[in-house]
Amino acid sequence: MRWLTHLAPAFSIGILVLLSPGVALAQSCGDSHANCPQDQTCQPGLFGGECRRQPCNANSDCPSARRTCLGGFCQTGCSTNAQCGRGRVCQGAGSLRLGTCVTPPPPQPTPPPGQLPGEGQACGTIILGGGVKKHKGCLKGLKCQNNKCVKLEVELQGASGKLALRSTRL
């Protein structure tokens, strides 16, 4: 009976430590590595499988689901776009962490034929709120004329073959 009086406080302290906000509890994973982040493996724990980092020295130390030893831990993922397959890119890879293969975002829309991005937009000295002056230039291939970005055209002039730059107005 005397052992019970010593066991109760020890059990209470253990529960308080587990429930304290400073202690991070491992993510539950059942029995599958697929339920864990890429740099963790599903390992047996006190309350079933838990996601934890698995230390390693070489790829042979890692389970098949996390076959790469990188940064001292078993991981899965990609380190280059070539590992992702057609139409996908490796995102988030770093020196100590593998990335994830994702579908890249769609390309940005292209401007209409004959129009460069920024053509016709305001340029020159712009006065902002409070009288602050800012100079805004034009993109390459454009020049600022009458506070508008205009396209530069190259044309041959006469029989001499000299090149001349001429701007066209919108």
How do the strands line up in the largest sheet? 1-3-2
The helix count comes to 1
Which oligomerization state do the chains in this entry correspond to? single chain
End-to-end CA span: 97 Å
Overall form = elongated
What is the makeup of the main sheet? 3 strands, antiparallel
Question: What is the H/E order?
Answer: HEEEEEEEEEEEE
Strand content: 25-35%
- Tell how many strands the DSSP assignment holds: 12
Structural class assignment: mainly beta
Helical proportion, percent range: 10-25%
Keywords, please?
31% strand; elongated; mainly beta; 12 strands; 170 residues
Describe this structure in words.
By secondary structure, this protein is mainly beta. A three-stranded antiparallel beta sheet has the order 1-3-2, with no helix packed on it. It has a three-stranded antiparallel beta sheet with strand order 10-11-12, with no helix packed on it. A two-stranded antiparallel ribbon has the order 4-5.
What order do the helices and strands come in, and which of them pair?
Elements: H1 2-19, E1 28-30, E2 41-45, E3 48-52, E4 68-70, E5 73-75, E6 89-91, E7 100-102, E8 124-127, E9 133-136, E10 142-145, E11 148-157, E12 162-167
Antiparallel strand pairs: 1-3, 2-3, 4-5, 6-7, 8-9, 10-11, 11-12
Describe, in short, the structure shown.
The chain contains 1 helix and 12 strands, in the order αββββββββββββ. The chain has 170 residues and is mainly beta.
